């Protein structure tokens, strides 16, 4: 009891909300209730300020000039890499590749590792709850190499069927790719166990961490995955920047993904020598402001403490789930035992897009649609769902506002 | 709430609940699909032409209230019309939902006037216009799947 009280006391959500300037604005005359955090999160002042400071005082190109500003920018860029390394507990900065986001990280692995290592007859194993970004790159790769794509099924609660996973994990499977948490259902996958099972069968493991990093403490050494990709903007950082973690031995053996400046040691028309890790995979001038902004976001999250954030979000998940269930005609899609703070739902007789429009009039922002997971929507036999996703700054009052707006939706539709 | 009632007018809610001409038309001379992949709105429009007269028109499929009621109202508006008149209605409806002056009075617009509120909701214009684009395509003899996204 004391521990709970202490947690409540140290996690001061009213104070935290003041760190996010956008939360002060009103939408159509109503207070903004932002429940679309699985799509993207809002940014704390610390991140906004860091990006402004970079452009105001430090802007220069990295790894190139000998002048003062270039050294400052390079130091900021590289210390951000160290921040990321610590945040996910990688062994070495060399294992941290900056990308444009999760999608690019997955494409990098599919293109570079996949083309080098896959042959006709091999198999790539993904799951039924993947985001399109963890489906389509593998489809492209399979088309090109003649490898086969296999799908781990999901049960009615939205959990992966691990017996089927074990059955599908044959020696033909060379790579397994799955999400840490599902963007559409919230399901948290047993990633450590799944990784160990894949490794026992000699397969390489990629984890789509877009929905993992904002909610869960990620330790890539403990999980032992081979690749882990995530996006800054889902974890309170800027858009357009992300991270691919890869084990050094694998990254070392992989050919470059893109050619250009910064990824080379020397270029002649006869032969080009590639740069060392991680620069081999960072062709061209990177999004330096994005990288320092990402580091500021991770510092911000660390200052609150991920376990505290997770406890707060879990409380919101339970509270909002039980409130939504009390509404006549609401069906919750995705009832896994282990869930991130994402609630997908349908309302009988009202299409999700109509729900979205009416909620928006009340200042409540949720996502409606197929959440870039069309195969999953088909599995649950719904064309689309409404999705409320909670972040570190959301409150129980905002869950109440969602419920009130849904009652208004019912009023409009059922008159 | 006023804005919402402008969008979700009684006619729209009624046609959503009880869509008219909501069935297949096996004898149709034209059959075209309309699909908005982002929304998942998906309809098939059946048109039975007798010369240049729309003898019968029907639709099947599912989507949001705006797209479904629009398809339903459309079928009631174009049934029995010459294709040229239907094309004119398409132009009028397009102007109406995108906020351009349609040049017609409420009386002339008839049931279509119920969709005037859509222009205040830019994200929903594509829902309202989907069935109309599909019909337009059917009358133009285009056979590919139509989308308004």
Please explain how this structure is put together.
The complex is a heterodimer of chains A (415) and B (149). Chain A has 415 residues and is α/β, with parallel strands linked by helices. Chain A has two domains: 2-41 and 305-414, Alpha-Beta Complex (Aspartate Aminotransferase, domain 1), CATH 3.90.1150; 48-303, Type I PLP-dependent aspartate aminotransferase-like (Major domain) (Aspartate Aminotransferase, domain 2), CATH 3.40.640.10. Chain A has 15 helices and 17 strands. Chain A has helices at 2-10, 13-17, 45-58, 68-88, 102-117, 136-145, 162-168, 191-200, 220-223, 248-253, 288-304, 306-325, 352-361, 374-379, 396-414; strands spanning 26-27, 30-31, 33-34, 96-99, 123-127, 148-152, 173-179, 204-208, 227-231, 242-246, 264-267, 272-274, 330-333, 342-347, 364-365, 367-369, 385-389. A seven-stranded mixed β-sheet of chain A has the order 4-10-9-8-7-5-6, sandwiched between helices. In chain A, strands 13-14-17-16 form a four-stranded antiparallel β-sheet, with helices on one face. In chain A, strands 1-2 form a two-stranded antiparallel sheet. The longest helix of chain A has 21 residues, at 68-88. Chain A is globular, with a radius of gyration of 22 Å. Chain B is an alpha+beta fold. In chain B, 42% of the residues lie in helices and 18% in strands. Chain B has helices at 2-7, 10-17, 65-78, 83-98, 106-109, 125-139, and strands at 30-36, 41-50, 53-62. A three-stranded antiparallel β-sheet of chain B has the order 1-2-3, with helices on one face. The two termini of chain B are 27 Å apart. At the A-B interface, α13 and α15 of A face α1 and α3 of B.
